[in-house]
Design goal:
heterodimer, A: 299 residues, alpha/beta, TIM Barrel, Alpha-Beta Plaits, 2 domains, nine-stranded mixed beta sheet, two-stranded antiparallel sheet, globular, B: alpha/beta, six-stranded mixed beta sheet, five-stranded mixed beta sheet, 30 helices, binds iron/sulfur cluster
């Protein structure tokens, strides 16, 4: 039997904005939405890949000599991702750190060893572990096991999701979590589909179900100019929360760092050319929700 | 017994601000021109020229008295605490018979130098030139410590300070006067103690002389204080006259008097010997009985007390060390190391924080001054409101107070000193060193030792140029560590010879009859502090370059002994050539596992170096009968020492700084503060009884808001429960971020708040970095 594993593209220790206390944030690779504004383009694809930082490259082509798959391009983006089998020989050969692997398959035990190293800080700060992504719900079996390991040690757990999971598959797993961060993006079905590539009926149904089953949940809304911040969507979001008797919302502001990351993976995502979300507009929206008795939590 | 802490009657933190009067004092302080305090040099020289035949103790006491009789005095407008170290408001004392002579090498440069310029009065300059410098040319401490050949070697070595720097050569310092007792005795109480001892017929001649010298020194302080009172009278300062009526002769009857009395002693101690690490001890504890008395009688005025304390902090900041341009890089930032300890436990081990603790924290929070060095004791038993307040103050910026873990320090001191009944009352000395309050002379900053140089010597000499044909080559990790040990013993032996020489010279030529009265044991034994008079003695020796060693050993193990990719000779040669021919080897070495990333293998090598250092250092006993104590801190010596070193197998290039204190090498910890703290805590801190220094940096945005103190507290407690001894947390201002922008490789571990999450500053685009800098500017105000 193949050992259980999941592709992880980053582990951020001392994360302090994704749940209470000092946390370790685990980023799973792979996502089933394709939001136009995705800020972690390197997380969308499930498979690990090699990123290329062109500004660090000195053209030595040590990578070319090292590559057994003839997957190094002489011009343009250094890695031919169709030929590459991710052996990472080139990464080791490059003396300029111009090549960097993104994503690594990890077993639950391996990942847990890293998480548990910060146990003293979780305890002293009331923190824990947050699973993020990409979309962590792509890996139910893996997360289920992680949750058992964490719960055995009394580690607080949280998960960030876009809500695209199968409710039946996830019902028993969600119960093991201490907190769910649930992203609402666009309430209108058509617009949601246009911006993310997927219908949102399951997402909204999952949101309702979470509230009904009494699993602690915090809703979040990323503010992206021209996509999620129009008056209708704000109103829809407020109505949706009210219908669920929810009076809290986290607002996240868009920042454009993701766009520089498109280049390092040679990604196909279109650049929106947006600036970091305007602070004044952010404040106005906060105010707007507050007036409607929805408490805004922002970091 | 738990202190019944009642904070209800105190002002709320947010309610109190330093008064307009104190703010005015602060602005006067800032506008005063830092100047050379030449009078001490001139007066001491006059005295020494006339008196050659009496004992060293009598000469020193006489010179002190002569100086304090005629030192120019000033009482500045509105001052709440009076008295200055020098004839200037902000002054550098010139201890001419000690290191002050060597510092005069800058006499014509003091004013023009870029870093820390010092004004020198022209008339004073002429006097120094004409009669002071020529006299001391052949008579200063270093000249007298060694026979000629040794002396030349010593001077050559110390002018570069590559192997080690002997700080005690500047005169003795770094101890904790027993201020708690002094404020209850006054000078007359001290005199009574000395008189009683003098009536003992069994005293030897030298003991009698020592006590006589004590009395002269005590009288010197009284005269000094009287002169201030007379001046106050002349200036019509009735408040000051009143303040100086009781103290310093009588026990302090109010907090204000106690602080003024401490200030007189602090000044005279720093005038007598050198102004380094004379520490204030647990002020919130020993002032507490007076506070209770004032409170009970209804006299306590919180605002006034806090103003007095602000004024005291300004006074502590008036003295600046006299360093020449050559010395400054080793100790930059004008350190005097007047440590002030707050919090901690009582004799039963219970938390002892009290109302004064909180009031002092308010002062620190709202009134930041260069001195004192604020240190807070914490433990697993600390009161929640106390530790919360401590972390609030830290989150506000300024890097203070630094934090000390009782749960590690007390057992660590217990393993060194047979002093069970005193351990709870430890306080800190200087920058980071724990010591027994008022009863010890731990000379905690005796020397700073370049530990990384030991490896360099093994590689460049033993490996590349074996002294004899049949010198055994190094074929295993154990043999390498064996070679490091024998070279360490050899270099430490050299340090010992010289440090012993300096200690003897201090005892023979520069006893401290005044300071000796302030530490328990000296009067009872009728022996000087420099002569083992204190109840407990030690010498603190600090290692520099610990992480560089751990990183290098891990790299050598991987490349040479494990994968056998190269020989030790090849690697040593590459280091010698500063990787000139092998840039890819340097890149490879740099990318290898480093201390500070929670990697047990590297951390354990680093830990092995801690054990070895402890073993070799702790075997030694100083001339005062105290054991050497190891510590790991570097002031700024990691830069000056690193500058003179070749490349190392860690991938560090020639001339680059070594690691700062016990911290990972700059920029080599890439997994955030929890991982770095885990690595540091994996070392056995209890072996490092003389203290460690760990600096953590955060940008102001990361720790802003109500969550900030909780995070810093959580981080510190997580580290302390794993055996961490000390940490200092710096919340950064935008200037540091600017520096990070210029040299990002040095700031790899700098976390900043982006939007909704934290990021490593260096991982951000230049534009994003600019944005963060702009934002921090607003956030940190
Ligand atoms: S080895 Fe690195 S620096 Fe050299 S060509 Fe390849 S990517 Fe560029
Ligand atoms: S990862 Fe391996 S296969 Fe892919 S480009 Fe690098 S060397 Fe070639």
């Amino acid at each position: 039997m193949r050992q259980l594993s999941a592709p992880i593209f980053d582990i951020q220790r001392f994360s302090i904005h994704d749940g209470p206390g000092i946390r370790t944030l685990v980023f799973f690779k792979g996502c089933n939405l394709h939001c136009a504004w995705c800020q972690n383009p390197e997380s969308q694809d499930v498979e690990p890949l090699v990123a290329f930082y062109a500004d660090r490259c000195n053209g030595s082509f040590d990578c070319l000599k090292a590559c057994p798959q003839d997957a190094i391009n002489r011009d343009g983006f250094r890695i031919n991702h169709t030929k590459c089998d991710n052996c990472l020989a080139c990464v080791e050969a490059c003396s300029r750190s111009a090549l960097r692997p993104i994503g690594e398959h990890m077993s639950p035990e391996h990942l847990f060893a890293t998480l548990v190293a910060d146990l003293p800080y979780y305890r002293s700060s009331g923190g824990g572990v947050t699973f993020s992504g990409g979309e962590p719900t792509l890996y139910p079996k893996f997360i289920d096991q992680m949750l058992d390991l964490c719960n055995d040690e009394g580690i607080h757990t949280a998960m960030e999701t876009c809500g695209t999971y199968s409710p039946d598959r996830w019902a028993p797993i969600l119960k093991k979590l201490d907190l769910v961060y649930f992203d609402l993006k666009i309430i209108d079905r058509e617009q949601h589909k246009a911006a993310t590539g997927r219908d949102n009926s399951q997402i909204l149904a999952n949101a309702r179900l979470l509230v009904e089953t009494g699993i602690p949940v915090e809703f979040r809304l990323p503010l992206v100019e021209g996509y999620t911040d129009d008056r209708e969507n704000l109103q829809d979001t407020a109505d949706f929360l009210k219908a669920l008797n929810q009076n809290r919302l986290h607002l996240l502001s868009y920042h454009n760092m993701g766009e520089t990351k498109i280049d390092i993976i040679n990604g196909s995502q279109n650049k929106l050319g947006l600036k970091t979300y305007d602070a004044t507009r952010f404040a106005q929206i906060r105010e707007w929700f507050t007036e409607r008795n929805i408490e805004i939590c922002d970091e | 017994m738990n202190v019944e802490l009642q904070r209800e009657h105190l002002l709320d933190e947010s309610e109190w601000e330093p008064s307009a009067l104190v703010m005015k004092l602060a602005s006067d302080h800032t506008s005063a021109v830092p100047s050379l305090g030449a009078e001490r040099a001139i007066h001491y020289t006059e005295y020494y020229k006339r008196n050659t035949e009496t004992s060293a103790a009598m000469t020193k006491a006489g010179a002190l008295a002569w100086h304090l009789q005629q030192r120019t005095l000033n009482i500045h407008e509105d001052e709440l605490i009076v008295g200055s170290h020098t004839e200037h408001r902000i002054g550098a004392i010139c201890h001419v018979e000690l290191a002050g002579y060597a510092m005069l090498e800058d006499l014509f440069r003091f004013e023009k130098r870029k870093v820390n310029p010092l004004h020198v009065d022209p008339a004073a300059k002429r006097k120094l030139m004409r009669s002071v410098i020529p006299y001391w040319l052949t008579r200063n401490l270093a000249m007298k410590a060694f026979p000629l050949r040794e002396r030349m070697k010593y001077l050559a070595s110390q002018s570069k300070a590559k192997e080690f720097t002997i700080n005690e050569a500047g005169g003795i310092a770094h101890f904790l006067p027993d201020y708690g007792t002094i404020i209850t005795l006054g000078t007359e109480g001290l005199r009574a103690l000395i008189d009683t001892r003098l009536s003992d017929p069994g005293l030897s001649e030298s003991q009698r002389e020592q006590l006589a010298a004590n009395l002269i020194a005590l009288g010197a302080l009284e005269t000094f204080a009287d002169r201030y009172r007379d001046l106050a009278q002349e200036q019509g300062r009735a408040d000051v006259v009143e303040l100086l009526t009781n103290v310093p002769r009588q026990p302090a009857s109010s907090l204000h008097e106690a602080v003024q009395m401490i200030w007189f002693f602090q000044m005279v101690i720093q005038i007598e010997s050198i102004d380094q690490g004379i520490s204030l001890g647990r002020m919130d504890q020993y002032l507490y009985p007076l506070y209770l008395r004032e409170k009970a009688s209804g006299r306590f005025d919180e605002r006034h007390f806090k103003d007095v304390f602000c004024a005291f902090c300004l006074k502590l900041s008036e003295v600046i060390p006299l360093f020449s341009e050559r010395i400054t890089p080793m100790f930059s930032g004008l350190p005097n190391g007047q440590a002030l300890t707050i919090g901690g436990c009582d004799s039963d081990g219970n938390d002892a924080s009290n109302e004064l603790t909180f009031m002092l924290l308010d002062v620190l929070d709202k009134f930041k001054t260069r001195q004192p060095n604020w240190h807070a004791r914490l433990s697993s038993k600390s009161r929640v409101d106390y530790s919360q307040r401590v972390f609030e103050v830290i989150a506000g910026g300024g890097g203070s107070p630094a934090l000390y873990n009782d749960d590690v320090i007390i057992p660590s001191l217990a393993s060194r000193f047979d002093a069970k009944q005193h351990l709870w009352n430890y306080a800190t000395v200087g920058c980071v060193e724990p010591a027994l309050s008022g009863i010890s002379f731990s000379s905690t900053d005796a020397a700073i030792f370049n530990y990384a140089l030991v490896l360099e010597t093994v590689l460049l000499r033993d490996v590349l140029k074996p002294r004899s044909k049949n010198a055994k080559s190094i074929c295993t990790m154990d043999e390498l560590i064996g070679a490091i040990e024998s070279e360490l013993r050899c270099q430490v032996g050299r340090l010992k010879t010289w440090l012993d020489g300096i200690e003897r010279a201090n005892k023979d030529r520069h006893p401290v009859p005044f300071s000796s009265m302030t530490v328990k044991g000296c009067i009872e034994r009728a022996r000087d502090l420099t002569d083992g008079g204190a109840d407990y003695n030690a010498s603190g020796i600090q290692a520099v370059g610990l992480a560089d060693l751990g990183n290098s050993l891990a790299a050598i193990d991987t490349l040479v002994f494990d994968s056998k990719e190269m020989t030790l000779e090849t690697l040593a040669l590459a280091c010698k050539n500063n990787f000139a021919q092998e840039p890819s080897l340097k890149a490879r070495l740099t990318a290898m596992a480093k201390f500070g990333n929670d990697d047990a293998r590297v951390d354990n090598y680093t830990g092995q170096m801690v054990t070895l250092f402890d073993q070799v250092i702790s075997e030694k006993v100083n001339t005062r009968g105290g054991r050497w104590m190891p510590g790991v801190y570097s002031m700024t010596c990691h830069q000056t020492m690193g500058k003179q070193m070749s490349a190392l197998p860690s991938g560090r290039s020639k001339g680059e700084p070594l690691a700062d204190g016990i911290a990972p090498t700059d920029g080599s910890d890439c997994l955030g503060p929890t991982a770095a703290l885990n690595s540091v805590a994996r070392l056995d801190h209890s072996r490092l009884a003389n203290g460690i220094n760990l600096n953590l940096k955060f940008d102001a945005n990361t720790v802003k808001g109500t969550k900030g103190p909780l995070l810093l507290g959580g981080l510190t407690k997580g580290y302390f429960t794993q055996g961490g001894m000390q940490v200092q947390i710096n919340v950064l201002d935008p200037a540091v971020l600017m520096a990070a922008r210029m040299t990002p490789e040095k700031y790899r571990n700098l976390l900043v708040r982006v939007s909704g999450y934290s990021a490593y500053f260096v991982d951000l685009t230049p534009e994003m970095q600019d944005e963060i800098i702009a934002r921090t500017r607003q956030g940190a105000g």
